[in-house]
Amino acid sequence: MPPRKPSTAEEISRLAAKMRVADPDRDNGDFASLTTNDAMSWLMGFGQIKEIDPKMKAARNPQELREMAVEKLRIALWDMQRFDYLFPDRVYSKTPNFKIARLESWPKWKEPHKEVRAGGMGTQKFDGFKDAERLNSYIMTHYNMMAFTQPELVQGLSMNPPKGPAGNWIGVKKIMGHAALDITGEGGRDTPFVVYFQRDILLIMEILDVKRVSWPEPGPKFFKHLQESQEVKFGTDPGAPLVPMMQTPKIPLVVVRYSYLEGRPKGGSQFTLHLESRLREILPPGTSNDKVRVELERHLSSGEEMAEEHLLMFARLLSHNADLVDKEWVEDQQSHWNIQKDVKSETRISFFTPCLRPRFRAVEEIETGKAPTPYTQCGACNKEAKKTMCGSCRAVCYCSPECAKANWPEHKADCKTSKKILNDPASLPKDTLYIPVRAFVPWVADFGFANEQEAVKMGGPVIAENPRNEYGTERFICRAILPNAGKAQWDPHQGKVVYYDRGGGTAVLWDRRRSIIVRLAPEEPPQALKSGIVIPFHDAGYQQFRQVLQKHGIQGQLLYVWVRRVGDCIEVDLKDIPDQRSIQWD
What we know:
Blueprint: H1 9-16, H2 36-47, H3 62-80, H4 83-86, H5 132-136, H6 143-147, H7 150-154, H8 165-186, E1 193-198, E2 201-214, H9 220-234, E3 250-262, H10 270-282, H11 289-301, E4 304-305, H12 308-322, H13 327-333, H14 341-346, E5 348-352, H15 360-368, E6 388-389, E7 397-398, H16 401-415, H17 417-423, E8 432-436, H18 449-458, E9 476-481, E10 487-491, E11 496-500, E12 507-511, E13 517-520, H19 524-529, H20 539-552, E14 558-566, E15 569-573
Parallel strand pairs: 1-4
Antiparallel strand pairs: 1-2, 2-3, 3-5, 6-7, 8-15, 9-12, 9-14, 10-11, 12-13, 14-15
């Protein structure tokens, strides 16, 4: 194939003249043009919720309602970007003045890793000792595990975000993840900028730096568990220092100069000319102007296509983050010593962290206007009990050791409900499913303690430990998904959809706060037993659960069910099935 003929200066000018930078004072990538419906839609998309804080309904006029919605969106963006790590001693503020310059840069982030490409890690295999240093040089380290919840990964949403508000935030996380992979894969010297587009919308991000933010160090309990895990995984001696892959991963914070372009205005973009100068820095000396422009075109045209709503939302996220950054530092980055004045007017300095996921307690508060309160009622005398819990099942609170001792004869029957599953399943009530809440998630430890710590914060306990009961004796809703529940097919003889049994399958159930995430399958107990963890399996309940799921569930795979905490298990009601159309938490 003959080499591509370089574009002439006239052709470049003609193409540039079609590009328009959105008006900085009313930029479609900025909050200035955000409507009330936009803000509400995105808020609902964060947690897939259907209603937001009732107080907003009391707004006196449309303008006040919009201001309330936008402010809630800003708070939600602040919260979901883990700003307690970036701003450890500060509450949300409209002018936080984030000092990016104080963070250390990611070592060797400019070194390219050709084996890494957007969408995955390719065929790379890592050894805990030999490859730890190489893994830590990737700025996308642990991205997927930190950005997406286990249920989202099970459903494949990280690769194929759903349409509408529910998929907006997932789509933005996908863009950020791909950007992190692009930066890691090519390296800063080969790719000074990344491009995303949809029809005539273009988002260009010049990579200025990659900073890193440390996660909090593990407490004694986590540290002990990690040491035990690495003994199994790597054969280390008890009490040995953590191997590199089990140590604290860093959160990458990508600092960018970005331009959001929408439409094709006369005059072109000065930012693209600035990018030409960046390309000159990495191209061989003496490269002609035409070849530089061809290279620029190649970079621009090889960008990744993304859904328009995801691009627009990401642009607003960048705009939001730009408002957080230290203004003096930004001015220095945008001064005439670095770039031309015209480029300054077309761009902003911002950042993104490609490891974000909602804090579901915050989402619940946004929806209801009330902060979720933990269950703290003494199981014996009903007084306030904030500290003492049953040390075995963690399902009952007590105000004192005396109350715990007095309540034991009554609590004893429920405390070890999992033993009934193991020894006497026939004694369990009919039309119920019992699932032990202690977790067995074998891949968590493979990715370092930070994911384990997040598993506790975001849902799911430390391996083999029961999570704290947050609902007392009250029923609460869990979402259940069983992707391989059966193959649906229309049967003309029966006149209905019939689900043909495909054998077993792993179901995942979780509450809205992610205080509990349980896995259920015939294969789970044997797998857990290999690690010395006994998790009984309620076979009769599981079989009935699959039938209920096929009858009442969405496409026979997704179902909302009533559950309650009973000792070290959750009890799933298989008879009283909620109206799936009226569930407020979607």
